[in-house]
Specification:
The chain is of the alpha/beta class and about 525 residues long. The chain has 3 domains: about 350 residues, TIM Barrel, CATH 3.20.20; about 55 residues, Oligo-1,6-glucosidase, Domain 2 (Oligo-1,6-glucosidase, domain 2), CATH 3.90.400; about 70 residues, Sandwich (Immunoglobulin-like), CATH 2.60.40. It has an 8-stranded parallel beta sheet with strand order 10-9-8-7-3-2-1-11. Strand 2, helix 3 and strand 3 form a beta-alpha-beta unit. Helix 5 runs parallel beside helix 7.
Length: about 525
């Protein structure tokens, strides 16, 4: 079971208002108590912060506001002492515009560093070389006035894309992997794992939907089939090389793969390539139970142990907000998370998800660099990035000074301390669920058998000594488990009325997922 830590917002140890590695170390006992097995740390490397760390200027160091390499070593050692594994982000698609590689490439168009990045001459009339779009709005090309060429960037202009056809780039990143493996990391989360290589001819992407004024940049991006700027077959060759480095050291490769169906995901997640891939679709979706249950079944059947299931991350509104808000949204989120615990792979929680948090409320201003730099053209990510609420002290115990992001304080019932004192709080339901998964490895390891139901809003399965029914409909339902003797041991709703195991059928309340065991 994994747990994503957004480093800027988790815990601040030195009072500068920005989360740091020492702050994470100080909270490891909490994470052990909660029952997670692995920590994924978002980037903590030096960065000018155009995309809050995902524009890296040095891959072998720690940003001063996050600590030092010694702080990192201390964190890894302390985590390992508690049986926690540490996964770090690696950002290979692009660097920061302030990275020394790009500074040299821009300064000397004829120098060797130029070939580390993707440059192209203008198209007709001085336009960008092709129709590729940035995820964050506008063309995926910015003109360098000095040389008269454009550089490619699938994200912000301050995040120039690397040229992965250059063997020097490949060798440098292999060296970076070795650097962090030697410091004890247990895995790498690969950012934009479906990116890296681009078409050698820089051909236009096919347009598959009309464009209109005022469209959201994400809609514009989705109006093209990304045949030439992403999903190139050569990308998996990189991960095969990385796997040769990581597998002998039992280091996991976990890709951020934007591939909502198994046929595409399986290009990246396969023996000798990536170990698992995050399924991003579920972290974007609103409350759409039928589509979600269909996606879960199809992805499991295609990649039984290859999916890392997430409902939440640092880029999207929290599931409790997306699923209806308040207690309704929180209960729905836990119902889906409970299902995720039984479909293989590695589920992940995002910090605060165990509290059932909705998005935080900002006092004023915008902090997400993306809408700032695109003139408010896209929705910001600030709401899901507000500080972790530890208690009711100033700034919810995150820092002794004003946090980097100015948000409303959380009430006691939304803090770790407040929920730990309340046996009916969400945190105890999540802790019980994690303990159940650890106690019953059949829940994720035994062969899975789907139990057919007549309702597309209801999913049921058996895995050895475990059965699970996810009723995501708005009404109570009855499901036959095929044999008697099943005892309910967990439900996402505190105090849910569940039938005792007197028959082979169970009655499950609306928007409730129940786990049952046979025997103990």
């Amino acid at each position: 079971m994994g747990y994503e830590i957004y480093v800027r917002s988790f815990a601040d140890s030195d009072g500068d208002g920005i989360g740091d590695l020492a702050g994470i170390t100080s909270r490891l006992d909490y994470l052990s108590w909660l029952g997670v097995d692995a920590l994924w740390l978002t980037p903590f490397y030096p960065s000018p912060g155009h995309d809050h760390g995902y524009d890296v200027s040095d891959y072998r160091a720690v940003a001063p506001h996050h600590g030092s390499l010694q702080d990192f070593d201390t964190l890894v050692s302390a985590a390992h002492q508690r049986g926690l594994r540490v996964i770090v982000d690696i950002v290979p698609n692009h660097t920061s515009i302030k990275h020394r590689w790009f500074a040299s490439a821009r300064r000397d168009p004829d120098g060797p560093e130029r070939h580390r990045y993707l440059w192209a001459d203008p198209g007709p009339g001085g336009r960008p070389p092709n129709n590729w779009r940035s995820h964050f709005g506008g063309p995926a090309w910015t003109l360098d006035e000095q040389s008269g060429q454009y550089w490619c960037h699938l994200f912000l202009p301050e995040q120039p894309d690397l040229n992965w056809r250059n063997p020097v780039v490949r060798e440098d990143f292999e060296s970076i992997l070795h650097f962090w493996i030697d410091r004890g990391v247990d895995g790498f989360r690969v950012d934009v794992a479906h990116g890296l290589f681009k078409d050698t001819e820089l051909r236009d992407n096919p347009q598959i939907a009309p464009l209109a004024d005022g469209m959201h940049p994400f809609e514009v991006f989705d109006a093209f089939e990304h045949r030439y700027d992403m999903y190139q077959t050569e990308t998996t060759d990189i991960y095969r090389r990385w796997n040769h480095i990581c597998a002998p050291r039992q280091v996991m490769l976990l890709g951020e793969v934007d591939a909502p169906w198994p046929d595409r995901m399986s290009h990246y997640v396969a023996p000798g390539v990536l170990d698992q891939g995050f399924l991003l679709w579920a972290a974007r979706a609103g409350w759409s139970p039928e589509a979600l249950l269909k996606m879960v079944r199809v992805m499991h059947e295609g990649l039984p142990q290859g999916v890392s299931w997430v409902l939440s991350n640092h880029d999207r509104p929290r599931p409790a907000s997306r699923f209806g808000g308040g207690e309704v949204g929180a209960q729905r989120a836990l119902a889906v998370t409970t299902l995720f615990m039984a479909v293989g792979g590695t589920p992940f929680l995002y910090q605060g998800e165990e509290l059932g948090l909705t998005d935080g409320t900002l006092r004023h201003g915008t902090y997400d660099p993306v809408p700032v730099e695109t003139a408010g053209a896209i929705h910001g990510r600030d709401g899901c990035r507000t500080p972790m609420p530890w208690d009711t002290s100033p700034h919810n115990g995150f820092s002794t000074s004003d946090p980097w992001i100015d948000s409303e304080p959380r009430p006691p019932q939304q803090t770790v301390a407040g929920q730990r004192a309340d046996p009916d709080a969400p945190i105890h339901r999540y802790r019980s669920l994690l303990a159940l998964r650890r106690k019953h490895p059949d829940m994720w390891r035994a062969p899975l058998e789907w139990i057919e139901t007549s309702d597309p809003l209801v999913a049921a399965l058996r895995r050895g000594s475990i059965a699970l029914v996810a009723n995501l409909s708005d009404h109570r339902t009855h499901v036959s488990l095929g044999s008697p003797g099943w005892q309910p041991v967990f439900a996402n709703r505190q105090g849910s009325r569940l039938d005792s195991a007197t028959s082979e059928a169970i009655s499950v309340p609306a928007e409730t997922t129940v786990v049952l065991t046979r025997g103990s």
